[in-house]
Amino acid sequence: MSTSGSVTESIFPAQDAPVTDRDLDWAVVQKVQAGNVGAFDQLVQKYREQIFSVIYNMTSNREDASDLTQETFIKAFQAIGRFRGKSSFFTWIYRIGVNTTMTFLKKRNRRRYISYENINEEASSSEIVERLTASNRSEKGALVSELQEKLNDALQKLSPKHRTVVVLHEIEGLEHAEIAEITQTSPGTVRSRLHYAKQQLQSYLQDYLT
Questions:
Q1: First vs last Cα of the chain: how many Å apart?
Q2: Residues ≥6 apart with Cβ < 8 Å to 101
Q3: Rounded to an integer, what distance in angstroms lies between the CA atom of residue 145 and that of residue 208?
Q4: CATH code, 179
Q5: Residue 172 lies in a domain
Q6: Is the model's pTM score more than 0.85?
Q7: What are the pLDDT digits (tens) for 15-59?
Q8: Alpha-carbon dihedral sign for residues 135, 137, 141, 147
């Protein structure tokens, strides 16, 4: 669902165009903050599939992803009065979704949570993992599909914070800086977690790949 028509016409004079997606979202947010709660549906429609995709890749469960997506938007609606537009709405809602999901995962996996603090990092090629995570690239076929399934299983073995950066970067295609803003870390931390996560994935998939 596009929000550009009505929002652009009502908020931004034609001579001020073009406006960015961030501007359009901020205009809708301001409508909601002014009491037009129905305008929030525009944001739900715009970002629901993306949020669901992120959460599904983090949980590997459609029912959980559906519930957590709904919870994410409920939290966003309840907090939208405090949103001041210092970041994009896109970043803000992603952050809520990721944090909500990480809290859920920590509770669900508490008994089988694995600490990776003592795992020895050894530099190795990321070519295999990059190939496995290339779900949106041209390389397709039965082998890749099978490997994708194995990768998804391996993803669920990562800690929530490592799984998050893999999902946001390798699957959602977000830049390190965007992920850092969403996870409230630094780009360096994101790169470190991503590197570490890829090594873990390679380790989990080693038997299958050799």
A1: 46
A2: 54, 55, 58, 59, 68, 160, 164
A3: 14
A4: 1.10.1740.10
A5: yes
A6: no
A7: 555 688 889 999 999 999 999 999 999 999 999 999 999 999 888
A8: negative
